[in-house]
Amino acid sequence: MINIAVAQSGGPTCAINASLVGVFKESLKVSTIDAIFGSINGIEGIIGNHLVDLKSIILTNNDMELLRQTPSTVLGSCRYKLPDWKENEDVYKKIVETLKVRNIGAFFYIGGNDSMDTVNKLSEYFAHISFDVKVIGIPKTIDNDLCVTDHTPGFGSAAKYVATTMHEITHDSIVYSIPSVTIVEIMGRHAGWLTASSAVLHAMGETAPHLIYVPEMNFSLDNFLSDVRQEMSKHKAVIVAVSEGIEVPDGVQSGVVDNFGHKYLSGIGKYLEEIVRSEIGCKVRSIELNVMQRCSSHISSKTDIDEAEAVGAAGVRCALEGETGKVMVFRRIADMPYTVVIETADAGCIANNEKFLPKEYINTAGNNIRDFALGYFLPLIQGDLNLIKENGIPKHFAIHESVLK
C-alpha cells in the first residue's frame, strides 16, 4: 500500500479543481492506494509537511460535483521556485523527508509552466538519489502557453468568458449615436492565445472585435491610431482587444516581478484609452477583465472541465504504470468532429519554454486574427455545466479556513 499527494500551483483557473477531482476519483479505484493527501499551497505544503487527508474532506459524489464547478485552487496555490538541487539541496531534503514520513509513492502537481519546472527538478533529483517516488505534471493555465500540448485545461473556460464578455460589451457600446472606442485588456504576458480567442465572435457574424493586438506582433502606437481611425470610418462603436503583454513605453506597466522573474502586468488598456482621448478625441473607455477571466466558472466550458478531470485521472494511471518526470498532454486528432487523445511528454521539454500564438493565425496588418484560426478555438469553448446552485447563484466547494492555515 502507498499513499499519494496532489498539489495545485500558479494562477487559479476554472478547471484546476476538476483536475484535482480527476486525480482523487481515479485514485479511489486503486486498491493499492491508501491515503490521498492534498498539499496546502503547492510545493510549500510538501516542504513544510502541511498536508490534509482528502478522503476526510471530499466525502460524497456531491462534494466531487461541487468541486468540479468550483473556480480557483481549493488547496491554495504558490509561486515558489525550487533552486537547482546541485546548488542547494536543503529544500529537497525537506521534501524527501515529508514524502518518506507520509509514505507517499507518487506526487501530482497541477500547474503551468513554472510548476512543470518543479516536476522536472524533483524527478531529476529523485533519480539522482534513487528515491522511488513518481512525479507527474497535470497541466493548467489560461495562457495556453505550454509547449507540446495542443491546449491546456483552464484556457477553454477563460476563452469562453472573454468571448462572451466581449459580445456583451459590443452590444452595450452600440446603443448610443455618438462614435466611441472601447478597449478591452486581456491577460497574456508573452502569448496572445486568450486575446486571440475573442475572435470567435467573428464565427457568429459579428464584426467585433474590430482590432486585436497580441504580444507576438510588434506594436506601433502610430499604427494603432491609424487602425482605430480606419475602423471608426466603418463602425460607430469600435471594439479593441489587446493583450496585457504588448510592448509599451517604460513606466506604463509595473516593474515588479514574481519569484520566477515574471512582470506583474496591467495598465495597457488605460494607457491606450488616454492616447485615443488625446489624439482622436472621441468617447473612449478601457475595460480590464482582470481575474474574472480565470475565475468566472458560471460560464465555464464543459469541454474544458471534462478534459481537466480526464487529464488528472490519466496522470494517476501514468504513475501507476511506472512513469515519472512526465506531463500529461493533449494531441488533437481533428477539429470536426473535435477529437483529442491524452499522451505524455517529458517535463524537461515543457519546463521553462513557451508556446506562442502561430504567426499564421495573425493577419498581415498584425491587428486581427484570420478566420481559419477559429477552428482551433471553437471546440474548446463548447458545452455548459449543469451547475448546482444555492439562492440563485452557483454553489462552491470549500475547505474550512482553519485547515488551510
Key terms:
405 residues, alpha/beta, seven-stranded mixed sheet, 14 helices, 34% helix
Account of the 3D structure:
With 405 residues, this protein is of the alpha/beta class. The protein has 14 helices and 13 strands. It has helices at residues 16-28, 43-47, 61-68, 90-101, 113-128, 155-173, 193-197, 221-232, 268-279, 292-295, 302-320, 347-350, 374-377, 401-404, and strands spanning 2-8, 33-39, 51-53, 104-111, 134-139, 180-186, 211-213, 237-243, 283-288, 326-335, 338-346, 389-390, 393-394. It has a 7-stranded mixed sheet with strand order 3-2-1-4-5-10-11, with helices on both faces. The chain has a 4-stranded parallel sheet with strand order 7-8-6-9, sandwiched between helices. A two-stranded antiparallel ribbon has the order 12-13. Helix 1 packs across helix 11 (302-320). The longest helix has 19 residues, at 155-173. It is elongated, with a radius of gyration of 22 Å.
Determine the strand fraction and express it as a percent band. Answer: 15-25%
End-to-end C-alpha gap: 29 Å
| Structural class determined from secondary elements | alpha/beta
Number of H- or I-type helical stretches: 14
| Rg, Cα atoms, Å | 22 Å
Shape: elongated
- Mind describing the biggest β-sheet? 7 strands, mixed
**Uncertain runs with pLDDT below 50, 5 residues or more?**
none
Helix content: 25-40%
